[in-house]
Every structure is written in structure tokens, then in C-alpha cells.
């Protein structure tokens, strides 16, 4: 023991939780596997190809940009893989393979890395990538017929249930609670199967990767608004359930809106954020020229995230409501005084 | 029913195996190094010189200042040095080094209190002071001053038995091995504080201790046992106040500001020994554990025992340690030199190897918000971290950096491995220095304006 008596010193704490960024990202990837499995089952091999191309190009752009700009490598945190998987989830299953390459470039380089990389981007990369890809609107709105409807629908592409809902047309009989829940419907790769997404969401909640705040307030707001403002031809509850189960609302609420970088960090802020997402989704669906509201609702709220943080700061420990009020009043008085002094 | 507080983390508690085996007293070492500074407040002046013979419990250092706690010899023998030595916490501090003669000759200066004195708040308070009792949970604040300072203000006394830090279990063992003595010690603190009743908060992971203490009719001692949720930092003073009374200590204040005083378990036991047995604060139970220790256990150690000696008693190191800390792993302070002597506040000596090393080269914030969810002071570590790194003093104040009591919860739960707690320590120091500078500058300017040319030199001094 004599050989060394002097040791490294550092600030507390000396222990840290096992969970790190990489394990969080890995959990998100695991949670998306059920939804992707359903997509492969319904839409076939092209889904797998899109997934591979999307992930590979995201990782490549992340690696390449960091290398070029001489920043420390960050592909190890798996966040680029998550972006790749999420981007695949919001693509139509019949998209050509160059689509994810362009989407990845925009998502990783423009949206994420130009703002400083993980934690610094203010828009959800996958959703922003999708929004960018809408410049190819013909490709992005061509919905392949799922395997379960081959033979029932005699075409290569078909309309999604959401577009039926908002076109005022009655839903065809093959769009019902059961098919919506299971995912045997046309739509984006990751959005179709409610049950698969809920399994993934449950996993994320149990693992503590996401909390209930954003998804609950998001879905709750949509549910309440749809209940209150029903649509002709549908019972209010029926209308609400159809709205919840279509148009990527589930994947949006659990996987997109909960993105750390682009959502508020304060607990009250997260609830405000969820309510905002929900309200905007309904607003776009009801009044927009295009029924698909979730992704734009989230993107718009993304921009507000830091602002919401500032508005929803937690109450200071040891400061009662009266203390806070008194402080506010004092600050106001001081401002007034300063103004008056300036005026003089 | 205890109240709840916001935030907190749930680390692996790692209390076993040390909490299963009785405390063992280790043989006093050949030499003890007693720093004259084992408390918060004014440093003690050595009362002995090289060559003096001292007995166990003899007063060897004191200071008349009210915020201080005297030091007693922890072995009998000869003083071989009175010189600055390395303190456990890093500074060079005036210390008395005693060579043990192995006889443990007791000093008869301090007698047990008489039964009448044991009912007299003033006699108890005087004894707590002369026995050199400090907050044994780690803060090392002189207990007598805390009690005296709370008189007239404090209506609730809380005894802290949370022991919320991982590994530490010395208080738990004390509850199990000396329950009656502990209750008597608590009763003494209660009497000294002039109250009829007090709470004893114990985390539920010590159910055996809760049951044992409850079986001894704690109400007879004026004690109510409060089983508390298992969550770090339950044992922090502010959290104890919140949990037991639902009061929140106001920013920048101490618990007595909201009528509470918090005294830790081992402090009460030390007070029991000082009053009933006439033994000053000369030893304590230390949990020696961590991945680098061969036989984790609780040892009863005399103060001043070189840490290396204590580690040998616990089987030595498994392999070369990376870091050693005094206290728990979350709030503990790193020890630089294990040749230094044990001090009063060391509830634990934890040895960590690279197994616990989870630092990364490039910590990156992913804005997960865990730090906000974990901060028991409801701060926003994520933004504070940003503002401190930017050096934005105004924002640092707006985001209440001074409220941080450095519990480490934010850093513990940060998946990006940001040095949050470390940065807040820095931020607090920066802000304090800035304020002192501003104040000095203001004084200097005032002097300049007021006294004209004559005060220019004074103004310059103020800027330094």
C-alpha cells in the first residue's frame, strides 16, 4: 500500500446511472421493430430495402459531416440510426430507393448537424426530412395496397382511411376498427399498425425512455376535440376513435413528439407541448387542404419548444406562490421606476 | 404520513454485505494525525506541544469562537509533531500527531452527567459543546451551535436516519446494535432543544431497524419514528424538513428559518456517549466499501487513524483504486491522500476502481430533461449548465445557481454524462467571486466619489 497514497480527485458524484445516450437510442430502435415487422409483412421487401438505405445513408452523412468538419465522431451514439429508422417509418412503402437518400441528407446534414448535432437541432430530423421530400409529392402520396387488401382493391395504389374520413365519403368496409388496429391498411411504413406501435410505446414507457406527459396530452387533446366537434355521418365516439387510429397519430405522439431535442424539458412544458400538438393536428385535419396534420403539428410545436420551456419554469424550491407574486410585483415596480427615470 | 418532495434518483443501494455484519472496532493505529479543523467554523488552536504526554479524551485543541468544536486526543501517548499535515479533504491543516503508547489510558476530565444534569438543557448543551460534537452525517457543523442557534425559532426537531446514500450503513448498524442508547441520545438533543417531541425519519429499506426502535417505546423518549420513502437525496437537510413538516427551507436560508433543526443519527449517538459515559467525540463508525475494497464492512475507528490503516483492516484493495471518497458516492468528497487521518464527518470511505468510471471524452446534452426531473431543488440544470459555460452571470442568478446543494442527482442520471454538478460548483464559486468583486468595486467607487483624490489609492485596493 505504500507505493501509492495519492489518488485522482473529481467532483461528486462518483457513480453514474448505467443508462447512457446509446442505450436510450437502442431502446427506441427496439421499440420500432414491431411496427416495421408489420410493414414488411404488409408491404413486402421494398420496406426492408428502404430501411437499409435510409439507415445507411443517415449514418454515412453523420459520419461524413463530422469527419469533414473535424468534430468528434458521434455515430456511436446511434442517434443517426434512430433518425434513419424514423425516416423510413414516415415514407410511403412504395417509394424508390433514392428518396431516403435525399431525405437523410436533409435530416442529418441540414436539420441536425448544421445546428450542432444531437441535442441542438430544433426540428425533428425525420419529420423535417419528410416535409422536404414532399417536393416529390406524387411519390410521397402514392399509397401501396397492403397484402391483406390485394384482390379486394383492384389497383396498385389506394387512398388512406384518413383521406376518406375528411373527404366526407363513407369508409369502405375494409377500413374498420380491426384493420386499423392491426395495420392492414395503406399508409406510411411505420404508421399503419396501432397495436405494433402501442407495444413499442409500452416498451419505451416501461424503460423510462419516454414519459406519459407528451403522448397523453397529445392524444387526449385530439380525442377531446374530436369528441366535441364531431363530423357529419359519424357518431362522436366513432369519429374520435377513427381519428386516433389513423394518420400517423400514434407514431407521432409516442415516437416523434417525444424526441428529446425538439420537445420542452420542463414537465409542465411537455404537457403544454402535447396539447399544442393535439390542437394543431385537429386544426390542420379540419381546415387544412391536406388531411395529414400530425407531422406539421409536431414540426410547428418543435419551433416553440425552447420558448415553452421559458414560459413553464418550475416553481423555485422554498418560494411560495405569494413570494413569487411579491417578486413579480417588485420587478414590475422597478421596471416602471426605471421607465419613469428614463422619461425624466 | 410523510410528505413528498420533487425529483430524486434511485441508485443501486449496494448496502450489502456491510449492513449484515456487526460493527467491528479496529485496533488503534501506532500513530494518529488529528487535524485542528474537523468542523465548519473557526479552526482550533493546538493546546499541546511536541513531547507532551496525552491521555485518551484529553482536550488538545480548542477555540473560544462560538462556531467551533474542540478536538480530543483519540489515543494515549506522546505528541510527536504539531505541524500542518494533509487533511482528508486536501488542504494542509495544522495537526497534532500522537504516537500511541498502546495503553489507552483514559483521561478523567470528562465525567458522565448526573441524572439531574441529564434533564437540564444547559448542562446537556455545554457537554455537547465541550465533547466536540459536530454533524456526523458529513456536514461537520458544530451541533451545540446549531441547537443554541435554533432556540426560540425551532418548533420541530428532526433526527435524520434516512441514510439515503448508496453503500453507507453505519447509521443502520448503530440503530440495530445500540437502539436504546440512540433513543436516549435523541432524547438529550430534544431536551437541549427544549421540545417535547421530535421526529426520527428512517428510510423504509431499514425496516428491521424501524421495527426494533418501535418495539422500545420511542414515545417514552419523545420520539416518533417516521418511515420514509427510499429515494436519494432523502437524507438532505432540506428534504428531511419537507418530508416531515411539508415546509420548504427558503432560498439561501437554513432549516431554522422555517422552525426546524435536523440532527443526524450518529451525532445523537455521540451525544449519548458524551453525556451518559463521559466520552468525547473520539471515534465513529465508518462504512468501508466500494468495488475496490476486499471486505466491505463497518469499522469503529478512532479519529486521526490514517486511512491506509483503515483500508488494511477491511482487507485492503482489490486492485489499484481510481478514486477514494469520504461520505457517500453521490455527495462524497474525493480524498487525495490516504496517509491523512480520519475526520469526524466521514460516514463512509468508499474505494472505486475504473468499474465506476462512466465519464466520456465528449459529453453531449441530448435534452432528455432527466436533470430537471431529478433535481430536488426544482432547478433546470440543463439551462444552468449552458449559462455557466457561457459565463452569463445574470442568467446564472435568474436560474438560481446558488440554490444547488450539489446532491449530484443531475449528474447521476445524465445519459450524456455531462459534468453538471461540477459545473454548478464552479458556477457558484464564480458568482460568489463576482459579487464580492462588484461589492468591492462599489465601495471603491463610493470612496472615490466621496473623498475625491485622497481615496484613489483606496479605490485601487478595492479592485484587487
List the helices and strands and how they pair.
The complex is a heterodimer of chains A (344) and B (464).
Chain A (H helix, E strand, L loop, with lengths): L20 H23 L1 H24 L10 H11 L8 H15 L12 H9 L3 H4 L20 H7 L9 H6 L11 H13 L6 H16 L7 H10 L3 H8 L10 H21 L6 H18 L9 H23 L1
Helix pairs in contact in A: 1-2, 1-3, 1-9, 2-3, 2-4, 3-4, 3-5, 4-5, 9-12, 10-11, 10-12, 10-13, 13-14
Chain B lengths: L23 E2 L5 E5 L9 E2 L6 E2 L4 E4 L8 E2 L4 E10 L5 E9 L20 H10 L12 H8 L5 E6 L8 H8 L1 H15 L4 E6 L3 H9 L7 E6 L8 H9 L14 E5 H13 L5 E7 L7 E6 L4 H7 L9 E4 L6 E2 L13 E5 L17 H5 L6 H10 L2 H6 L10 H4 L7 H32 L4 H8 L1
CATH fold-level name of chain A: Ammonium transporter fold
The overall strand count of chain A is 0
- Write down the Rg of chain A: 23 Å
CATH architecture of chain A: Orthogonal Bundle
**Strand order, sheet with most strands of chain B:** 1-14-13-17-15-16
State mean pLDDT of chain B (0 to 100 scale).
Answer: 92
Number of helices of chain B: 14
Backbone shape of chain A: globular
Q: What is the level 1 CATH name of chain A? A: Mainly Alpha
Question: What Rg of chain B do the Cα atoms give?
Answer: 23 Å
| Termini gap of chain B | 54 Å
User: Biggest β-sheet of chain A, characterized?
Assistant: none
Along the chain, the helix and strand elements of chain A come as HHHHHHHHHHHHHHH
* SS class of chain B: alpha/beta
Number of domains of chain B: 3
Question: Which spans of chain A have pLDDT < 50 for at least 5 consecutive residues?
Answer: none
Instruction: Describe the sheet with the most strands of chain B.
Output: 6 strands, mixed
**Quaternary structure classification:** heterodimer
Amino acid at each position: 500500500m505504500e507505493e501509492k497514497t495519492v489518488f485522482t480527485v473529481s467532483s461528486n458524484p462518483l457513480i453514474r446511472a448505467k443508462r447512457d445516450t446509446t442505450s436510450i437510442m437502442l431502446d427506441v430502435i427496439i421499440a420500432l421493430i414491431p411496427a416495421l415487422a408489420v410493414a414488411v409483412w404488409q408491404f413486402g421487401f421494398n420496406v426492408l430495402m428502404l430501411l437499409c438505405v435510409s439507415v445507411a445513408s443517415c449514418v454515412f452523412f453523420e459520419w461524413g459531416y463530422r469527419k469533414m468538419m473535424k468534430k468528434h465522431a458521434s455515430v456511436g451514439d446511434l442517434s443517426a440510426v434512430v433518425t434513419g429508422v424514423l425516416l423510413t417509418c414516415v415514407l410511403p412503402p412504395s417509394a424508390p430507393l433514392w428518396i431516403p437518400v435525399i431525405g437523410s441528407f436533409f435530416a442529418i446534414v441540414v436539420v441536425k448537424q448544421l445546428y450542432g448535432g444531437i441535442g441542438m437541432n430544433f426540428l425533428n430530423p425525420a419529420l423535417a426530412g419528410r416535409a422536404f421530400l414532399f417536393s416529390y409529392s406524387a411519390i410521397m402520396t402514392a399509397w401501396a395496397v397492403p397484402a391483406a387488401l390485394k384482390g379486394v382493391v383492384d389497383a396498385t395504389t389506394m387512398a388512406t382511411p384518413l383521406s376518406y374520413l375528411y373527404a366526407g365519403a363513407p369508409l369502405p368496409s375494409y377500413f374498420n376498427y380491426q384493420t386499423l388496429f392491426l395495420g392492414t391498411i395503406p399508409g406510411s411504413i411505420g404508421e399503419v399498425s396501432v397495436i405494433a406501435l402501442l407495444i413499442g410505446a409500452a416498451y419505451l414507457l416501461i424503460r423510462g425512455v419516454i414519459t406519459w406527459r407528451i403522448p397523453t396530452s397529445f392524444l387526449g387533446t385530439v380525442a377531446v376535440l374530436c369528441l366535441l366537434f364531431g363530423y357529419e355521418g359519424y357518431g362522436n365516439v366513432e369519429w374520435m376513435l377513427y381519428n386516433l387510429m389513423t394518420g400517423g397519430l400514434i407514431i407521432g405522439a409516442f415516437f416523434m413528439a417525444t424526441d428529446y431535442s425538439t420537445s420542452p424539458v420542463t414537465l409542465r412544458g411537455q404537457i403544454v407541448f402535447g396539447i399544442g400538438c393535439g390542437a394543431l393536428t385537429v386544426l390542420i385535419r379540419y381546415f387544412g387542404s391536406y388531411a395529414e396534420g400530425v407531422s406539421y403539428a409536431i414540426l410547428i410545436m418543435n419551433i416553440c419548444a425552447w420558448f415553452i420551456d421559458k414560459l413553464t419554469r418550475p416553481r423555485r424550491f422554498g418560494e411560495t406562490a405569494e413570494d413569487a407574486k411579491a417578486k413579480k410585483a417588485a420587478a414590475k415596480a422597478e421596471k416602471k421606476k426605471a421607465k419613469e427615470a428614463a422619461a425624466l | 404520513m410523510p410528505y413528498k418532495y420533487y425529483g430524486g434518483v434511485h441508485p443501486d443501494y449496494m448496502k450489502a454485505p456491510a449492513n449484515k455484519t456487526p460493527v467491528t472496532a479496529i485496533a488503534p493505529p501506532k500513530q494518529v494525525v488529528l487535524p485542528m479543523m474537523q468542523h465548519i467554523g473557526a479552526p482550533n488552536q493546538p493546546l499541546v506541544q511536541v513531547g507532551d504526554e496525552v491521555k485518551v479524551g484529553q482536550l488538545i485543541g480548542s477555540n473560544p469562537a462560538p462556531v467551533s468544536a474542540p478536538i480530543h486526543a483519540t489515543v494515549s501517548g506522546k505528541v510527536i509533531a504539531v505541524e500542518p499535515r494533509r487533511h482528508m479533504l486536501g488542504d494542509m491543516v495544522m495537526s497534532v500527531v500522537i504516537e500511541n503508547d498502546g495503553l489507552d489510558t483514559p483521561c478523567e476530565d470528562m465525567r458522565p452527567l448526573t441524572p439531574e444534569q441529564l434533564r437540564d438543557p444547559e448542562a446537556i448543551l455545554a457537554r455537547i459543546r465541550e465533547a466536540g460534537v459536530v454533524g456526523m452525517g458529513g456536514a461537520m457543523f458544530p451541533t451545540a451551535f446549531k441547537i443554541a442557534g435554533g432556540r426560540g425559532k425551532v418548533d420541530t426537531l428532526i433526527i435524520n436516519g434516512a441514510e439515503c446514500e448508496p453503500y453507507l450503513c453505519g447509521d443502520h448498524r448503530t440503530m440495530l446494535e445500540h437502539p436504546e442508547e440512540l433513543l436516549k441520545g435523541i432524547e438529550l438533543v430534544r431536551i437541549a432543544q427544549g421540545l417535547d417531541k421530535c421526529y426520527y425519519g428512517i428510510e423504509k429499506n431499514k425496516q428491521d431497524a424501524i421495527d426494533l426502535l418501535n418495539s422500545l417505546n420511542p414515545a417514552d423518549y419523545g420520539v416518533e419514528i417516521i418511515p420514509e420513502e427510499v429515494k436519494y437525496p432523502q437524507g438532505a437537510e432540506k428534504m428531511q424538513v419537507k418530508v416531515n413538516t411539508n415546509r420548504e427551507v427558503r432560498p439561501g436560508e437554513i432549516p431554522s428559518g422555517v422552525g426546524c433543526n435536523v440532527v443526524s443519527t450518529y451525532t445523537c449517538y455521540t451525544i449519548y456517549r458524551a453525556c451518559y459515559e463521559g466520552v468525547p467525540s473520539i471515534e465513529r463508525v465508518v462504512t468501508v466499501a466500494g468495488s475496490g475494497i476486499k471486505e466491505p464492512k463497518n469499522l469503529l475507528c478512532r479519529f486521526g487513524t490514517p486511512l491506509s490503516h483503515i483500508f488494511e483492516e477491511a482487507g485492503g484493495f482489490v486492485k489499484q483504486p481510481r478514486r477514494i471518497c469520504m461520505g457517500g458516492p453521490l455527495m462524497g468528497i474525493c480524498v487525495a491522500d490516504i496517509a491523512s487521518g480520519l475526520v469526524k464527518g466521514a460516514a463512509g470511505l468508499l474505494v472505486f476502481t475504473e468499474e465506476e468510471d462512466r465519464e466520456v471524452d465528449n459529453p453531449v446534452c441530448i435534452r432528455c430533461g432527466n436533470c430537471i426531473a431529478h433535481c430536488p431543488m426544482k432547478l433546470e440544470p440543463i439551462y444552468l449548465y449552458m449559462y455557466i459555460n457561457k459565463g452569463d452571470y445574470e442568467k446564472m442568478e435568474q436560474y438560481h445557481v446558488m440554490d444547488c446543494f450539489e446532491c449530484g442527482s443531475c449528474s447521476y442520471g445524465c445519459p450524456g454524462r455531462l459534468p453538471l454538478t461540477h459545473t454548478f460548483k464552479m458556477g457558484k464559486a464564480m458568482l460568489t467571486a463576482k459579487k464580492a468583486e462588484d461589492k468591492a468595486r462599489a465601495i471603491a467607487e463610493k470612496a472615490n466619489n466621496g473623498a475625491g483624490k485622497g481615496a484613489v489609492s483606496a479605490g485601487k485596493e478595492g479592485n484587487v
